[in-house]
Amino acid sequence: MTIPLVTFGGGGGHAQVLKGLRTLKSVRITAVCPSTDSGGSTGGLRRDYDAGGYLGDLTKCVAALCSDSRLARALMHRFSGGALDGHSVKNLLLLGLEQTLGRRAALEQLFHIAGIAPHRVLPVTDRRTELRARLRLGNVVHGETNIDCIASNPLWHPDVHAIESITLSPDAPASADVLDAVREARMCIFCPGDLYSSLLPTLLPRGMKRAFAHSRAKLVLVLNIMTKQGETDGYHAEDFIARVERATGRRCDIILANGGTVPMRATAAYAVERKVQMATDELRADARVRVLPFVCLTDAGLICHDEHALARAIRRLL
């Protein structure tokens, strides 16, 4: 018997979770990605070729589920210089497949090429939509890229320009495939990543709250290890949890929080960008919380979740 899981999030933290989950036996994963990316390679292909705003996040998750390390590395390869500067093989491949086969057939072909069956990766909505953030001052920031780098504005201040809410414009319905996956899931996992520009956009489309209300799935939230300047300045774990629960309309059943020590050399580098370790002390009395040592460092010195530790924690929950 295969256990249906649904995961939610953008490309980075979501992909890290998927690398661990793909090692679990008897699970069938539906990974749900946002459709609002407007920067980098995806943004350029969106402007020039009417590509979907899910292109980069979706293909990064496909590469994470790919068990062939050489193929995964090739898919992730990004060109430098020339006409393809900044574009990745995975993005160009999916765009080419979509232009020749259509979106649904293109996704099936990509899954076949990457050999990720029985798993799949889906955009949360098929419609073209834009992410908008309302700030504490009342003004609105348009576009995922501008929200993602809002703190780069020299006039930005965390108290004045804190994000109050996030919406889609125009409002868009969630994909029927995604809604069906949520209703049938045994577990829904909210992955780490940028709260307002990666995770919440996968929960905003119309129909998602209703799907969660009619789902018997356990909701598992994997908390971020660090805060992000411009989005979650000064946030405690409870702030993060409250915003996810507001979006889903349901209380999380399990919360996985990092209890490991972040290496000093990493915290010093992150401090330059005013990113600090998220406070979780107030959660220790909450019976839903599992505090485990999830922290690890990439070869580039970036803080991330240990995929193997996450997989072990999810396996125990299943």
For the report, how would you describe the main beta sheet?
7 strands, parallel
Assembly category: single chain
Mean pLDDT: 94
What's the order of the H and E elements? Answer: EHEHHHHHEEEHEHEHHEHEHEEEH
The CATH homologous superfamily:
CofD-like domains
What portion of residues is helical?
Answer: 25-40%
**What name is given to the CATH topology?**
Rossmann fold
User: Can you count the beta strands?
Assistant: 12
CATH class type:
Alpha Beta
**Count of domains:** 1
Give the C-alpha Rg: 19 Å
**What fraction of the residues are assigned to beta strands by DSSP?**
15-25%
- Read across the widest sheet, the strand sequence of neighbours is 3-2-1-7-8-9-10
* CATH architectural name: 3-Layer(aba) Sandwich
Give a written overview of the molecule.
The relative contact order is 0.14. The protein has a single domain, classed as CofD-like domains (Rossmann fold). The model has no long low-confidence stretch (mean pLDDT 94). It has 13 helices and 12 strands. The strands form 3 sheets. The chain has a 7-stranded parallel beta sheet, with helices on both faces. By secondary structure, the chain is an alpha/beta fold. Helix 1 (12-21) packs parallel to helix 3, helix 3 runs antiparallel to helix 4 (69-76) and helix 5 (89-101) crosses helix 6. It has helices at residues 12-21, 40-49, 55-65, 69-76, 89-101, 103-114, 144-148, 176-184, 195-199, 208-213, 237-248, 264-271, 307-317, and strands at 3-8, 27-33, 120-123, 130-135, 140-142, 163-169, 187-190, 218-222, 254-258, 289-292, 295-297, 303-305. It is globular and about 50 Å long.
